[in-house]
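Structure in, sequence out. Go:
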C-alpha cells in the first residue's frame, strides 16, 4: 500500500496550478521519454529462485523510484522469488522487440518464471520519422512497409506490424521457455472529465479519471485468444485516484499526465499486486 504519511505530507501542499498544468497536456501524443541516467545496474538473479520480469515502458521504469516496477520488489518475499524490472522508457511493443531489449530478457527467462507485459503508452506514436515507435492498431496480421530514417532500421524499409502481433510474439516465446506470460492493463493517466450521463465516480464525485487509453479491447481479445491472464490494474488504480480527487491526484503526477512521483509509482505497484490477488494468480503466492 502507498506510504500514507508521505502522501498526506504532499497533500498539505496541494496546488491547483499543478492540476491545470497536467490538464494542459495533449493526451493524443505519447509522452516525452524521461532520461534514464540514474537507473541502478540490474542485480544478478538467484538462479535457484523463480523470477517475475516486468516488461514495460517509462511508467514502470525511468529515473530511480519514478516507475512502479521500482516499488514492486518490496511487495514480494524476495527470499522466494526474484523481481527483475526490465522496463525501458519510451518503448512500445514494437520497439521493445526491434531494439533488442526483448531478446536480452528472453535469454534470462527459465522454466517456472513469470513475465508481466504492460506496453501501450508509446504505441500510438509515429510509424516512421525521427522517433519511429508506433505500431498498427489491433491484434491481427496486418503489416505496413515503412521506410525508416532513424532507429534500428535506418536506411531500410521496416515491416511494421500490429500491437497485438508484437505482444503475441513475446507471449509465445515466453511460453516456449516454460514461463508464464501475464498481460496488464495500462497505468492510468491524470486526465479527468465529467462522468458520463451525469453519473458519479467510484467515490461519489462528479469527475471521472481516464481508465482506458484505447488498448483494453485489444488486450482483452488477445488474452482470450492466447489463453493468457489479463490483470486489470487500471480500474484498481483509477478507483484509488478518484478517492483522492483531482487536486490531490495531481500531486502524484508532478511533470505530466503520464509519469508519477515515487508515491504515485508506489500506488501503481500496489494496484498491480492487488490485481494479482483478485485474479488468484499463482504469482500472488509470493506476495508478502
Amino acid at each position: 500500500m502507498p506510504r500514507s504519511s508521505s502522501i498526506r505530507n504532499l497533500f498539505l501542499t496541494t496546488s491547483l496550478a499543478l492540476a491545470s498544468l497536467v490538464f494542459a497536456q495533449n493526451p493524443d501524443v505519447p509522452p516525452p521519454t524521461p532520461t534514464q541516467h540514474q537507473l541502478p545496474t540490474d542485480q544478478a538473479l538467484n538462479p535457484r529462485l523463480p523470477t517475475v520480469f516486468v516488461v514495460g515502458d517509462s511508467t514502470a521504469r525511468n529515473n530511480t523510484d519514478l516507475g512502479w516496477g521500482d516499488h514492486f520488489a518490496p511487495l514480494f518475499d524476495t527470499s522466494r522469488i526474484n523481481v527483475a524490472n526490465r522496463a525501458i522508457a519510451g518503448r512500445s511493443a514494437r520497439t521493445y522487440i526491434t531494439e533488442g531489449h526483448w531478446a536480452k530478457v528472453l535469454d534470462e527467462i527459465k522454466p517456472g518464471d513469470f513475465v508481466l507485459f504492460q506496453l501501450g503508452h508509446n504505441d500510438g506514436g509515429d510509424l516512421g520519422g525521427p522517433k519511429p515507435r508506433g505500431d498498427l492498431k489491433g491484434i491481427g496480421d496486418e503489416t505496413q512497409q515503412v521506410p525508416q530514417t532513424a532507429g534500428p532500421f535506418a536506411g531500410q524499409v521496416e515491416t511494421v506490424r500490429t500491437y497485438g502481433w508484437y505482444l503475441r510474439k513475446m507471449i509465445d516465446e515466453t511460453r516456449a521457455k516454460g514461463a508464464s506470460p501475464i498481460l496488464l492493463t495500462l497505468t492510468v493517466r491524470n486526465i479527468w472529465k465529467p462522468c458520463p450521463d451525469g453519473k458519479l465516480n467510484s467515490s461519489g464525485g462528479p469527475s471521472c479519471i481516464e481508465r482506458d487509453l484505447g488498448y483494453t479491447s485489444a488486450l482483452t481479445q488477445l488474452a482470450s485468444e492466447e489463453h493468457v491472464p489479463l490483470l486489470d490494474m487500471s480500474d484498481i488504480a483509477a478507483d484509488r485516484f478518484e478517492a483522492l480527487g483531482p487536486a490531490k491526484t495531481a500531486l502524484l503526477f508532478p511533470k505530466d499526465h503520464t509519469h508519477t512521483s515515487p508515491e504515485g509509482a508506489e500506488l501503481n505497484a500496489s494496484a498491480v499486486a492487488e490485481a494479482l490477488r483478485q485474479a488468484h494468480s499463482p504469482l500472488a503466492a509470493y506476495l508478502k
